[in-house]
Amino acid sequence: MSRLPMLSGYELTFPPSLPTASKGLTLAEIEWQTTNRTVLIDVISVYLDFSREKVRRQQLSEMKITISTRTRPVIVMGDFNSEWIAQQLTSSKIGNTYGLHTYFGDNKDLSTYKDKRLDWILVSKELVFQSYDVSPLELSDHLAVIATVSLAVENGD
Length: 157
Known about the structure:
The chain is mainly beta and 157 residues long. It has helices at residues 53-68, 84-90; strands spanning 6-13, 24-33, 38-47, 74-79, 100-101, 119-124, 127-138, 143-151.
């Protein structure tokens, strides 16, 4: 998940949604050293239900609670099993209270499962994408998303 040191972390298992296997999220706190300061960042890896939109909406609600209780810059990534959920978290039309954004540029094919973009990396306003690609290597039934993220330039960092 990161080349940077992980300080601590925890997991949240979503309530069971039979017949699918348990899903959830893992949150790791990482320490990002700059020349002027140390920044603590939350990195959340999430795996949402693939079979039912209603269940994904409930899982999204739980994830929003986790994000809203934290005060650090955040990276949210993983298998959302949805194209609309990332748009929900980043949309200015619904009041993007999380300050999250994702990569949409360069007319790249960002599909990760068949012709759908189900796997995402979202970052808070304190972070910017330096690169964002979908790996052509088939590591599972989805293609992996690979991004380079940096701190937004602030005070000479």
